[in-house]
Amino acid sequence: MKKHFTLAGVALLGMISLCFGQADMDKATKTKGKTMNQSLPHNALINRELALWEIVKNKQVEAYKTYYADNFSAVYSDGVKDINQEVEGVRNVDLKDYSLTETKVVFPNKGTAVLTYKVTVHGSFKGEDISGVYYASSVWVNQGGKWLAILHTEAKAQ
After folding, report:
1. The whole model's pTM is what?
2. Which residues pair with 64 in a beta bridge?
3. Domain of residue 6, residue span
4. What is the C-alpha separation between 104 and 137, in angstroms, rounded?
5. Are residues 111 and 55 in the same domain?
6. Are 69 and 143 in contact (CB under 8 A)?
7. Residues 6+ apart with CB under 8 A from 21
8. pLDDT band at residue 79, thresholds of 50, 70 and 90?
9. Is 33 in the same domain as 45?
10. What CATH number did the domain enclosing 63 receive?
11. By the 8 A CB rule, do 67 and 51 touch?
């Protein structure tokens, strides 16, 4: 019994130290984030995301493919998609308009960016109305000096 309490105590101390360490990391990220918010990579990534939405709206399939890493994945309520399935989706969507708000970019390291935002869309997919508000995220990686999307997720707001 004493052994269990000792192990629990050690685990608790470890978790507490991780929490304090995380708080310091959060503070550093926020400070760094203030600098990054006004930096070129931050704005460039939001602009790339906006460009993708415009490309989808205009059904520019070939241009669409140039924004993605070869091992790209997307996660939606109907499953996980690869780049070929995403391209097929662009052919089947009729996006009338869209609006991105609450955009945030975080750089976990210098070659990775996580973009989160809220998007309001009006349109249809294969004739079915998909209009509504969604929460979305995209993970971008810098490959050979070019930022490419490697993961995208969307969840319809409730």
Report:
1. 0.73
2. none
3. 1-38
4. 9
5. yes
6. yes
7. none
8. very high
9. no
10. 3.10.450.50
11. yes
